[in-house]
Design brief:
The protein has helices at residues 3-15, 25-34, 38-50, 54-65, 70-77, 81-93, 113-127, and strands at residues 68-69, 97-102, 105-110. It is mainly alpha-helical. It has a domain at 39-127: Arc Repressor Mutant, subunit A, CATH 1.10.10. It has a three-stranded antiparallel beta sheet. Helix 5 (70-77) crosses helix 6.
Length: 128
């Protein structure tokens, strides 16, 4: 990296900084009271990590359209059943999907409408 590039990056970083140190106590106190505890923030971080994998997103999206078994999902996504099962296991652990048995077949669906809302809002955001 050249000296010019370093200077440009430093200036970009500095643009977001305060010109002088002055804490706005009322704002800080208000936000501090509203902040979730550390464990809640860690849990939220883990929750959003699940959405960071395209295979899991595909599975969640197809399940937002219909309840499906592993065979259906694997066929639709053109993937192996073991790969789908592995991802479904993680999605179940994170309580994003639930399942029901019908004979020997297990059908999966989204755990609740919140997941569908998150997917819809994400699609809306990237479409803007």
């Amino acid at each position: 990296m050249t000296a010019e590039e370093r200077e440009r990056i430093r200036q970009e970083v500095d643009e977001g900084a305060c010109e002088f140190m002055h804490v706005h106590e009322e704002i800080v106190e208000k936000v501090e009271k509203a902040m979730p505890d550390e464990q809640q923030l860690l849990d939220l971080s883990e929750f959003f990590k699940v959405f960071g994998d395209s295979t899991r997103i595909k599975i969640l999206y197809v399940l937002s359209q219909s309840e499906m078994c592993v065979c259906d999902i694997a066929t639709l996504l053109q993937m192996g059943q073991s790969a789908i099962s592995h991802q479904l296991r993680m999605l179940k652990q994170m309580r994003l999907v639930t399942f029901r048995r019908e004979g020997k077949t297990v059908f999966y669906k989204l755990a609740d409408s919140h997941i569908q809302t998150i997917l819809a809002q994400g699609m809306e955001h990237i479409g803007e």
